[in-house]
């Protein structure tokens, strides 16, 4: 099993550009999450999903959108990139209220 | 959303020293998880504590859950450079289904 995979690993965006961060898990987990982590800080929840077709906002959803058309994929969309969105983004999944499995992260810089 | 406070925020020690990291909340935890995150990687679960007063050991790491389930600690004995990383506590507590809330983390640096 590959676990949770994320692409790209690094990306530099100009202000106002758009991009999609990809996340795929092969563990057949129902629950998936997107977090952002600023330097030296914990993780803040952006969006989460409890199953295909069901998503909900986390703590910091502004400026982001998600979709969940399949169990495996949970892409995160940035529509109009802003410098405040410079961060490291982690995708995670779990099957129950237990261990969350994290991807390796996407490091995004908006200039 | 349940707020988690971790202390200290930074810890820089020499190899062989002992250390303790704390995680506190004003609310009762349903359960508490500890994760370690190494530079450039995602967090990895170390342990989950569920019962008040519970103590779990993982090699040189000892995890304790407070009797009232409002606090937890992580104690590392004889720290090694390989213990360097960000230690995060997290809980599923709160009213929102499926949401894990993290503390701000403790950055540990162990010098050889």
For the sheet with most strands of chain A, the description reads: 7 strands, mixed
Query: Shape of chain B, please?
Result: globular
CATH topology label of chain A: Immunoglobulin-like
| Beta-strand segment tally of chain A | 11
Structural class, from helix and strand content of chain A? mainly beta
- Label the overall shape of chain A: globular
Helix content of chain B: under 10%
Q: What share of the residues of chain A does DSSP label as strand, in percent?
A: over 45%
In CATH, the architecture of chain A is Sandwich
Order of SSEs of chain B, N→C?
Answer: EEEEEEEEEEE
Radius of gyration of chain B over all CA atoms, rounded: 14 Å
Rounded mean pLDDT score of chain A: 94
Tell me the name of the CATH homologous superfamily of chain B.
Immunoglobulins
CATH architecture of chain B: Sandwich
The pair of chains with the biggest contact is: A-B, 25 and 26 residues
Rg of chain A (C-alpha, Å): 13 Å
Instruction: List low-confidence stretches of chain A.
Output: none
Distance between the termini of chain A: 36 Å
Question: If you consult CATH, what is the topology of chain B?
Answer: Immunoglobulin-like
